[in-house]
Design brief:
Number of helices: 6
Order of helices and strands: HHHHHH
Strand content: under 5%
Number of strands: 0
Distance between the termini: 64 Å
Radius of gyration: 20 Å
Largest sheet: none
Number of domains: 1
């Protein structure tokens, strides 16, 4: 009886250690996916053609969600992903802010261009953080709760601005 208890205790401890390592490994891979897609967003947002930045950034963000869905073992639905991305970005008005800065003459073209690039990258970062957090909690795209995601998105958006600014400079 004593050996069975010892064996069971060791087994449980090793299993917990394995699952903790696996969870940390998933999170690390998800963070790598986010960073890679933020870099791609910076590159695509730098293309000075109308709407290319928005369309390109959205495509990159959707690919990021697709890759993270696969990583965490969830089904990916492109329509649901696009709807969630649009809702999250609209919540913080990142696109409107970028469009507004482009029209202000005192800001200058170069400054507004860099601001737009940074905001697109920050939005990609924030979207990645929100989806990673949901996937880690076992929440699939179909069960995604935008009310809960809004605060996390705004917080991650601020961190994303810092992260993007560091990549640009």
């Amino acid at each position: 009886m004593l050996y069975e208890d010892i064996f069971f205790s060791i087994f449980v401890l090793e299993a917990e250690k394995f699952f903790t390592m696996e969870k940390n490994n998933l999170k690390q891979k998800a963070e790598e996916i986010i960073k890679r897609h933020v870099a791609w967003t910076l590159a695509v947002s730098a293309i000075p053609l109308p709407f290319v930045d928005v369309i390109g950034a959205t495509a990159i963000q959707m690919d990021m969600i697709r890759q993270m869905s696969k990583l965490y073992g969830f089904d990916y639905d492109a329509n649901k992903g696009k709807t969630l991305i649009t809702s999250l970005i609209t919540t913080t008005l990142a696109g409107s802010l970028a469009a507004t800065t482009r029209t202000l003459p005192e800001v200058g073209r170069a400054a507004s261009w860099l601001t737009t690039i940074m905001l697109q990258a920050a939005a990609t970062y924030a979207i990645g953080v929100v989806f990673m957090s949901n996937f880690e909690q076992g929440v699939a795209l179909i069960d995604f709760n935008l009310d809960k995601a809004g605060d996390l998105f705004e917080e991650a958006f601020e961190k994303g601005k810092e992260y993007a600014q560091n990549l640009i400079s």
